[in-house]
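TASK: fixed-backbone design
INPUT:
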């Protein structure tokens, strides 16, 4: 195979800098990992494999937060002998992306990578792990289409209050909107009922609205009154502080860059 040009090597290095994976670079450019390693190693220290075989902490608040974020914005698949996990996000969500990155490391000891799509605001936190891929099934279940069917695996009584607080926060950060009024909207009836049950457990009074849409999946929204929405902001902000971040829920969800 011919020697790569300087411009091609720069392109390889740029993708590696963003993705942090020889596999990703090789796939994008149609090169073997050994070829990519040969050129990239001249400019970057190649990261060794970060294989996870167990959970790093049994902190139920962090576990619940990860499960809630995954229920709302997570996706995963098996791709060419690799277990891929992604948490979808927005490149403008600087604080939230940082928190998700730290969460994955604190919970699993796994280093993830923020991938930003060109010409859009879409981004995702991505990593490869067979253990974490399988771990989520301890807590969630869904049919072939995750979006329409995902929900918690067990009833609320099978989880601790600490876990449910983290899960509520994760769901609010992913599929929730909390400004003047809290609105949680999904196409999964089971997940909407999970949210309703969690809010009831923590002494809120949610209202569920069912929207039948022609040629589209039924849409479920769980809402609170403006007064209770203000209480929920305080409740979620207290959870964030207990994790160790000095952010309000509003700051983490909407800013800076989104406010």
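OUTPUT:
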């Amino acid at each position: 195979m011919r020697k790569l040009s300087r411009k091609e090597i720069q392109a390889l290095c740029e993708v590696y800098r963003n993705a942090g994976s020889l596999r990703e670079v090789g796939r994008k450019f149609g090169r073997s990992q050994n070829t990519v390693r040969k050129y990239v190693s001249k400019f970057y220290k190649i990261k060794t494999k970060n294989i996870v075989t167990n959970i790093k902490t049994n902190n139920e608040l962090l576990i619940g937060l990860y499960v809630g974020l995954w229920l709302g914005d997570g996706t995963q698949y098996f791709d060419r002998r690799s277990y891929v996990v992604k948490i979808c996000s927005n490149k403008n969500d600087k604080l939230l992306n940082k928190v998700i990155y730290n969460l994955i490391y604190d919970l699993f000891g796994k280093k993830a990578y923020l991938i930003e799509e060109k010409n859009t605001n879409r981004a995702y936190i991505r990593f490869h792990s067979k253990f974490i891929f399988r771990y989520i099934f301890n807590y969630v279940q869904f049919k072939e289409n995750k979006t329409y069917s995902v929900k918690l695996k067990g009833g609320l009584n099978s989880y601790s209050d600490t876990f449910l607080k983290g899960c509520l926060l994760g769901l609010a950060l992913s599929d929730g909107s909390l400004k003047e009024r809290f609105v949680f909207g999904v196409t999964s009836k089971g997940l909407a009922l999970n949210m309703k049950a969690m809010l009831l457990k923590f002494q809120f009074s949610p209202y569920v609205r069912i929207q039948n849409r022609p040629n589209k999946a039924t849409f479920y929204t769980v809402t609170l009154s403006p007064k209770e929405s203000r209480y929920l902001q305080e409740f979620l902000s207290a959870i964030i502080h207990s994790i160790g971040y000095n952010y309000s829920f509003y700051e983490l969800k909407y800013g800076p860059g989104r406010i």
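COMMENT: Strands lie at 74-79, 82-90, 113-116, 122-128, 140-141, 151-152, 176-178, 182-186, 207-211, 219-223.
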